[in-house]
Each structure stands twice: as structure tokens, then as C-alpha cells.
Amino acid sequence: MNERIQELIKRATITKTELRNGWERKTYTYQEEVFDKEKFAELIVQRALEIVEAHTEIFQSDEAKAMVEHIKHSVKTDFGIEDAPVDNVDRILRTIRTRS
After folding, report:
1. pLDDT tens for residues 28-41?
2. Do 44 and 79 contact (CB within 8 A), yes or no?
């Protein structure tokens, strides 16, 4: 399995620890690893957005930069990370296209 996926699985797994009473009034520690599926999905989406952001710097034209911002916004909206209304990216893209 990919190292990065393994790292995300590890980050999405938490260890729950609790003290429990046993026989003869003895207390013991109980540990359980719990995989948080929502956290894992969130980490994958965040990583994808980091990759997009890292590639934003190589684009020079305003249209390309606006398209990257639109992609980031679309991914966030699709996965429920950002519920904000569509920003000005569409307007910027239309403006740039009409100049050409």
C-alpha cells in the first residue's frame, strides 16, 4: 500500500483508553484503536487540495490561476468542506475569456 495512504490511515486512527473495573476490585486499562472514516476522507481531500495549491504557483496566466481556484472551490464544495456560495472565479474566467 502507498506510504502516503498508510500515513493518512494512521492519522485517522485514534486510540481510546479507559479504566475498567475487573474482578476482585482490580482496575485495568482497556485500549481500543478506532478508525475514523470521516477523518480519513477529510485528510484525503485536504491532501488533494494541497497538491492543487502546490501546482498553482507554476501557472502564470490569470485564466490558469482562476481555473485552479475554481477547481479548489469545486472540490471543497463537492465534499462539503466549504459551504460558501460560488465566489468570483466564474466572473473572472468570463472576463478573461471575453478579453481574448
Report:
1. 778 889 999 999 99
2. no
The verdict on pTM exceeding 0.90 is no
Torsion of CA 82, 86, 90, 92, to 10 degrees: -90
Rounded Cα–Cα distance for residues 86 and 81 (Å): 13
Alpha-carbon distance of 51 to 78, in angstroms, equals 17
* Cell numbers placing 76: 471543497
Please name every residue paired with 28 in a beta bridge, in sequence order, or none if there are none. Answer: 20
Distance from C-alpha of 45 to C-alpha of 62, rounded to nearest angstrom: 25
13: domain range? 3-99
Give the chain's domain count. 1
